[in-house]
Design brief:
Length: 352
């Protein structure tokens, strides 16, 4: 396969995924192999929901719709334009995937295959139903992928490089276990938002998407706010309110009740509105249904603090704070070139 063939296969996969959107599931005409895959994939979506209570139909379809848009020919071509794929020596690349949000490892999967390598996938048990069907679809639209995609539930063996994502604890294990292989090892990261008090109602409402999408379980979810001294949270809470139905979902409600009880028994100061708590805390990783906040004196000092803690931060949501900032409401709409932890996966894959 050449690069154009690989791109074309993923474009067809994007077309297939275009049938699954936040608006609903609608079978289309002229989708290759639809008779073979549409009903099967629909069943796998239901299985994924039953297996993992955090994977609601809404969140799964949100993910699939985003990937459908990303896999358009224009987006794939523009993403890959700056790389040279002429001298790729095909290797077997293992991917150890996380399972915190649906298809969280798909970008690595795409990157390995689009670069001309073989992939050996070890999925999380929390997210094991969707990707194997998409891999089969790729093999049907482009037979050149047959034999280049392997899934394993056992020990990783016979591979040349690895991309592994996990917690800070598992990352230490990964670093030891894979020390003799070219590797990209990802640890815990969270995202932060910087507020000035001058945000519009629309910006704060958009921020709610960054906070609540996927229940806050993703590394691109905002779990920490930086606010100026004397910041009034009234406008913030008002903008969050349209997410209040989230408290009717059992897993979220259980976490809310538990964390609220812990804070009350520990006599921590916190503010809450019946479905979200905010607590002053210097940590980046907040529990479900909680957002931490911290006051800042001035933006120059805050920039130094952000730079010092860059290894803990995935996205900085702001308006006019830095060149790398993400606009309000856009953390869960990454572009193909928005690499996790800022590590260029394609560049890594072209050097192995």
């Amino acid at each position: 396969m050449n690069l154009d063939q690989r791109i074309n296969a993923f474009v067809k996969l994007g077309n297939f995924l275009s049938q699954f959107t936040s608006e609903g599931i609608q079978k289309k005409d002229n989708i290759e192999h639809n008779d073979l895959f549409f009903d099967v994939f629909n069943s796998q979506i239901k299985l994924a929901q039953e297996h993992n209570g955090w994977f609601t139909k809404n969140n799964i379809l949100f993910t699939l719709e985003n990937w459908s848009k990303s896999l358009e020919n224009k987006n794939l071509t523009e993403w890959l334009l700056k790389y040279n794929f002429n001298n790729v020596n095909s290797q077997k690349v293992a991917i150890v995937m996380a399972g915190n949000i649906p298809l969280v490892g798909f970008h690595d999967f795409l990157s390995v295959l689009i670069s001309g390598h073989e992939v050996l996938v070890k999925q999380s048990s929390n997210d094991k139903h969707l990707l194997p069907i998409l891999a089969k679809y790729l093999e049907h639209v482009e037979p050149g992928f047959k034999g280049k995609i392997t899934f394993t539930e056992g020990k990783l063996e016979n591979f040349d490089a690895v991309i592994a994502t996990g917690s800070d604890n598992t990352a230490r294990y990964f670093e030891y276990y894979f020390k003799n292989k070219p590797s990209v090892i990802r640890k815990n990261r969270n995202s932060v938002a910087i507020l000035t008090g001058k945000e519009t109602e629309e910006q704060l409402k958009a921020l709610s998407e960054d906070i609540f999408r996927y229940y806050g379980l993703g590394c691109r979810n905002v779990s920490k706010l930086y606010v100026p001294k004397e910041y009034n949270f009234e406008a913030f809470f008002k903008a969050m309110y349209h997410w209040n139905p989230i408290i009717n979902e059992n897993k979220y409600a259980n976490n809310y009740d538990y964390n609220k009880a812990v804070y009350l028994m520990s006599e921590f100061d916190m503010l809450e509105n019946g479905f979200l708590m905010i607590k002053e805390d210097t940590s980046f990783s907040s529990p479900i249904a909680t957002v931490f906040y911290e006051y800042y004196e001035n933006q120059d000092e805050l920039k130094k603090l952000i730079d010092t803690n860059a290894e803990n931060i995935q996205c900085v949501v702001a308006d006019g704070f830095s060149k790398e900032e993400v606009p309000f409401g856009k953390t869960q709409h990454p572009q193909l070139h928005d690499y996790a932890d800022g590590v260029d996966t394609i560049e890594f894959l072209l050097k192995i």
